[in-house]
Each structure stands twice: as C-alpha cells, then as structure tokens.
C-alpha cells in the first residue's frame, strides 16, 4: 500500500455508476477547473467542456479522449 501523509492509512475513493464520486471525484473536478482543463462557454449553464489545455493534460495522463461520448 502506498504511503499517504507519512502513514499507510487507506483513502476512500467511491465509484458512482461509471464515474468517480465522493471526495476524490470532487477534488479532481475542482482541480481540473482550477487548472483550466474544464471550462464553461457560459457561466449560467451547467455543462463543462474540455479546453485545449485540458485535452493536452488528459492525453499526457494517458487518457484516450476519443472514447468520450459526444
């Protein structure tokens, strides 16, 4: 088990249907927004889009974005 914060405690990650939920999902989502990987075309809308910066970053993480449903 990987060492986290100097301990070997487990951290909870939750799957919800086909996505990561819980605190881990929330932290990832917030990080993607803060880093400009996910953006909105209109602040009033709920939909987010992958920016060019995000596409590059996700690809560098090894994610195949061609598998996303449009």
Description:
- With 70 residues, the protein is an alpha+beta fold.
- The chain has one domain.
- The protein is built from two helices and four strands.
- The chain has a two-stranded antiparallel sheet with strand order 1-2. A two-stranded antiparallel ribbon has the order 3-4.
- A hairpin with a 2-residue loop joins strand 1 (14-16) and strand 2 (19-21).
- The radius of gyration is 15 Å and the shape is globular.
Key descriptive features of the protein:
alpha+beta; 70 residues; 2 helices; two-stranded antiparallel ribbon; single chain; two-stranded antiparallel sheet; 31% helix
Number of domains: 1
**Number of helical regions:** 2
Mean pLDDT: 84
Strand order of the largest sheet: 1-2
Number of strands: 4
> What percentage of the residues does DSSP assign to strands (E)?
5-15%
Which spans of ≥5 residues are poorly predicted at pLDDT below 50?
A: none
Overall geometry comes to: globular
Q: What structural class do helix, strand and pairing data support?
A: alpha+beta
Rg, Cα atoms, Å: 15 Å
Helix percent band: 25-40%
How many angstroms separate the termini? 37 Å
Q: Could you state the order of secondary-structure elements as H and E?
A: EEHEEH
Profile the largest sheet. Answer: 2 strands, antiparallel
């Amino acid at each position: 088990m990987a060492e986290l914060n100097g301990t070997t405690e487990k951290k909870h990650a939750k799957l919800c249907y086909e996505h990561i939920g819980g605190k881990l999902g929330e932290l990832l989502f917030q990080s993607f927004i803060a880093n400009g990987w996910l953006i909105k075309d209109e602040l009033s809308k709920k939909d987010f889009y992958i920016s060019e910066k995000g596409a590059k970053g996700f690809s560098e993480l090894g994610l195949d974005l061609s598998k996303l449903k449009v």
